Amino acid sequence: MVRKTGIIILLAFITWPVLAQKRTQNASRAILKFNKTEYNFGKIFYRSDGSHIFKFVNTGKEPLLLSRLQSSCGCTVPTWPKAPILPGDSGSIKVTYNTYIIGRFNKTVTVYSNAAHPVVLHIHGEVIPRPKPMLPVKQTDKEVSPIKK
Fold first, then answer.
1. Has residue 11 got a pLDDT over 60?
2. What are phi and psi of 125, to 5 degrees?
3. What is the pTM (predicted TM-score) of this model?
4. In which domain, by residue range, is 52 found?
5. Which of 41, 103, 121, 144 is at 20 to 30 A from 28, Cα to Cα?
């Protein structure tokens, strides 16, 4: 019993500095914080604007570098700032879905940076056909007269 307790205490003393150093490293790095990571377009019309802007802030102590953004398919295109985002500064990522494809969609964009972990942005909705234009009805001021006998 004493031996097991001694081993546990020894392991705690060995691992404590490693864990403390890791926490200190994470606290000093860039931190990517998004307002929202999901957007629902709802129903949008064919060939309409399928873009949404995701806003973020670097809440860390080092400049944030967005190194790569990977979309789940070629129908979703992200645009992002290439310059470093300084601590406390904000930026945005524009995600555009191809609305020439009719039907439901559920897509992701993974944001890779020098922050601790990648962040996944989600967009979803449904592209529906545009309504067919109706022919205008000609309005007249004349009153329709009843049939004369």
1. no
2. 165, -160
3. 0.72
4. 32-128
5. 121
